[in-house]
């Protein structure tokens, strides 16, 4: 049974968030980034639980490639990146627009990206909790492309509404609820629209387990199923931080065409493994920009029951 929420508590949290955003937006971006460095130091020392989750995940993922000192340095960099990311997202609506986007975003594979966008087919952008995953939809909306993104509704309704309309949908991107908008998601693809989704979230015990950094990771099957049903190419992308202040590059790591898997009995598994491997390659290049503090390997494959002796 879901725990009831207090409207008063939710609204107080919302007011505190609005005050925080106003203070950060009043700062020059450079000052805000300096604040983010201090905030990361504080969070690293106070949040022991998430610090340990990040250490455990990195130890399993890289298996002895880092010394303890290097591992600690990397974890600190992870906290610093995401504190910096929060500050940059707050500044994004005020400093990013159609006339200056080239100051902030590089497109090393721009031709490939544009070909997919104007192909006339439905399209799915697949990414993960890597770099600045919010920037892609914000940028495409600013450039005039109509896109939709699948996201989880935040528990606090006031914060959800504020973040949705002041940031995520500021430039025209449409946000679809991953738990209740299946018909609208299908409609976007049926009408040959552009849909973006995160593909590195734990899908529970009933998810499809594929290899991610050498360990089976529960992954949602819906991405592959939608791609096969609606003949939708999957473009695996990542928006990595490459400089300061607020300098990013959008990398196209893979383009997966569903017609290449027609008739294959394990098509869903093959597609899911392929985009997961593409995400892993990007994370390996920029390990400090991945959200290692979340429990990506929370669930494990069910143990196979031993056959009874005859």
Task: Chart the SSEs and their pairings.
Blueprint: H1 7-26, H2 29-46, H3 48-62, H4 68-95, E1 105-106, H5 110-117, E2 123-127, H6 135-142, E3 147-151, H7 157-168, E4 174-177, H8 182-190, E5 194-198, E6 208-212, E7 215-219, H9 222-230, E8 234-243, E9 247-256, H10 267-285
Parallel strand pairs: 1-9, 2-5, 2-8, 3-4, 3-5
Antiparallel strand pairs: 6-7, 8-9
Helix pairs in contact: 1-7, 2-4, 9-10
Please describe what this structure looks like.
There is one protein chain. The protein has a seven-stranded mixed beta sheet, with helices on both faces. A two-stranded antiparallel ribbon has the order 6-7. A hairpin with a 3-residue loop joins strand 8 and strand 9. The relative contact order is 0.15. The chain has ten helices and nine strands. 47% of the residues lie in helices and 16% in strands. The chain is globular and about 55 Å long. The model has no long low-confidence stretch (mean pLDDT 93). The protein is of the alpha/beta class and 310 residues long. It has two domains: 7-95, no CATH class; 98-290, no CATH class. It starts with 6 loop residues before the first helix and ends in a 25-residue tail after the last helix.
